TrEMBL record:
<dbReference type="InterPro" id="IPR053826">
    <property type="entry name" value="WDR75"/>
</dbReference>
<keyword id="KW-0690">Ribosome biogenesis</keyword>
<keyword id="KW-0804">Transcription</keyword>
<dbReference type="Pfam" id="PF23869">
    <property type="entry name" value="Beta-prop_WDR75_1st"/>
</dbReference>
<feature type="repeat" description="WD">
    <location>
        <begin position="53"/>
        <end position="95"/>
    </location>
</feature>
<dbReference type="InterPro" id="IPR019775">
    <property type="entry name" value="WD40_repeat_CS"/>
</dbReference>
<dbReference type="InterPro" id="IPR036322">
    <property type="entry name" value="WD40_repeat_dom_sf"/>
</dbReference>
<protein>
    <submittedName>
        <fullName>WD repeat-containing protein 75</fullName>
    </submittedName>
</protein>
<keyword id="KW-0698">rRNA processing</keyword>
<keyword id="KW-0677">Repeat</keyword>
<dbReference type="InterPro" id="IPR001680">
    <property type="entry name" value="WD40_rpt"/>
</dbReference>
<dbReference type="InterPro" id="IPR015943">
    <property type="entry name" value="WD40/YVTN_repeat-like_dom_sf"/>
</dbReference>
<keyword id="KW-0853">WD repeat</keyword>
<feature type="repeat" description="WD">
    <location>
        <begin position="246"/>
        <end position="277"/>
    </location>
</feature>
<feature type="repeat" description="WD">
    <location>
        <begin position="201"/>
        <end position="232"/>
    </location>
</feature>
<keyword id="KW-0539">Nucleus</keyword>
Length: 345
């Protein structure tokens, strides 16, 4: 007689590694990415998974280097917590309980002890209205901390992490949603909003898809559904703003990223091509083609030595700053199979 028992899942593997933008460590030795309920840490040299940060009880929705400590990383999750890790040793340092599902996380060196998260305006995960809030992280010895010091920054923002970016070391942030670009200045505590028409005279689709801020200049780059990129300037005076337009992509721009010194702007989309635009000389471009699948995210290491691109086939490509592929980290992909049943006796 066989006794029946419930099956208990001890560890689940094979989750997507391209669900969110990956993070490259300050020394370019490690790549970190959200993967299901965990954060995976890969060696950029060997492509080996050297750590797996486990602790979240729901989908990890963001990974972020801690600005004040290059050996630590924040992760956020739909489980309503932000966790702080020592990622080289795989140690959970602290858990901050927010109480709302978290869609994405941001930080800047000029906002010490504060992280910014996007979460629903209601506790229900099905809520489709999101806000960006500042979370002041308590300084205490407890490992499990409930956070109560939360202040609203922007309402009605996109839940897509690539639609929010910080500019000029955290002096302002840019948020894009639909046909609106909103730029919020922290010192002034004032927002400026800019609107585009849904279609322009040549039939293009102006909907915003992603945003990136130049690290030194007052310049915001936005990607659009029709493949165009706009570079916005003079946006601290609502009536005097200007923008210039770049166009190479034939379909929606999925991700934009400036290099740390601001000398180049990287863009990607369904063409499986990484485009590098020379800032200030945008007619000069470099291309890295045939990357195998649509680009979903682009990230750059803090030292500028490495780029990486996430792809729709659950792959991350690590790229040297000279725009040459260095290595590839391939996650599991779904395959087709057939089941054959033998009828022979």
């Amino acid at each position: 007689m066989v006794e029946q028992a419930e099956i208990r899942v001890v560890h689940q593997g094979g989750s997507k590694i391209t669900f969110r933008e990956p993070v490259i460590s300050s020394d370019s030795r490690f790549l970190l990415c959200a993967s299901g309920h965990n954060v995976k840490v890969f060696s950029t040299a060997t492509e080996e998974c050297v750590q797996e940060l486990r602790g979240h009880t729901d989908l990890v929705t963001g990974v972020l280097l801690r600005p004040s400590n290059h050996l630590q990383v924040y992760s956020c999750s739909a489980d309503g917590t932000v966790r702080l890790w020592d990622f080289t040793d795989g140690i959970l340092i602290k858990t901050y309980v927010i109480g709302y599902p978290i869609c994405s996380i941001y930080a800047s060196a000029s906002h010490d002890g504060v992280v910014f998260i996007v979460m629903p305006t209601q506790r229900d995960k099905r809520s489709d209205v999101f806000q960006l809030v500042a979370v002041h992280l308590p300084q205490c010895a407890d490992q499990l901390v409930e956070t109560t010091d939360v202040s609203a920054v922007l309402g009605d923002v996109s839940s897509n992490p690539v639609a929010v970016a910080f500019g000029r070391s955290g002096e302002y942030l840019a948020s894009a949603k639909g046909l609106q670009l909103e730029i919020y200045f922290f010192k002034k505590q004032k927002s400026y909003r800019f609107f585009l028409k849904e279609d322009h005279k040549n039939g293009g689709r102006n909907t915003f898809t992603c945003v990136a801020c130049h690290p030194k200049d007052d310049c915001v780059a936005t990607g659009h559904e029709d493949g165009k990129i706009r570079l916005w300037r003079n946006f601290n005076h609502k009536k005097e703003y200007t923008y210039s337009t770049l166009h190479w992509h034939h379909s929606a721009v999925s991700s934009l990223c400036f290099t740390p010194e601001g000398t180049n702007l990287l863009s990607g989309g369904v063409e499986s091509v990484l485009v590098q635009w020379r800032y200030g000389q945008e007619s000069q471009r470099d291309f890295l083609p045939r990357l195998g699948a649509a680009i979903t995210n682009i990230a750059v290491s803090p030292d500028g030595a490495l780029f990486c691109t996430s792809h729709s086939d659950n792959k991350i490509t690590i790229i040297q700053s000279c725009v040459k592929v260095s290595s590839i980290i391939q996650g599991l992909v779904k395959g087709k199979f057939r089941l054959y049943v033998s009828t022979a006796n």
